[in-house]
Amino acid sequence: MPKITFELQASTPREWTGVILDHFDEFMQDHANCERKASALALSLVMKYPDRKALIPHLIRLAQEELEHFQEVYALMEARDIPIGKEIKDPYVNQLLSHCRSEPEERFLDRMLISSIIEARGAERFGLIADALEEPELKAFYKRLWAAEMKHGHLFANLMLHYFSETEIQTRLQPLLAAEAEIVQGLEWRPSLH
After folding, report:
1. Residue 75's domain is classified under what CATH number?
2. Domain for residue 94, yes or no?
């Protein structure tokens, strides 16, 4: 089976990490929320597409891994006396999801490809954070998350090879990547992963 690989079309400037480091407690609250939502998304996709059996074992494993990440972030927060934050709307994700088409098969492909792109962006940013942190425990944690998210970034796109041709996937992936680059460059920097 072929493999789908892609690169983000816009890089996050290294200066972005300054906002994160200056408001790290708030960032950790957002990060915990992102891990919780990623786990919930994987399980919701299992329920939404129960007939797509090739996805189910991968999505269950992903949900478990994201839940473990949530637990690990929460443990770090608890050690630092940082409370769980309230859920806030994610303009990045909401703008990306607005690019989903409405026909069911097209929406299925779009939703999965957008999930790959979101994971790839998270991986890129975890790498920047790991490089910028000085505290050894946090640095090691975010380096490990970077490696995990790199795998997740291609998981959703590659699962689509069970249902779509490589050409169909790449043909749709490229405009979504272009849209993501435009979205990410237009967002205000805040202490959040996206």
Report:
1. 1.20.1260.10
2. no
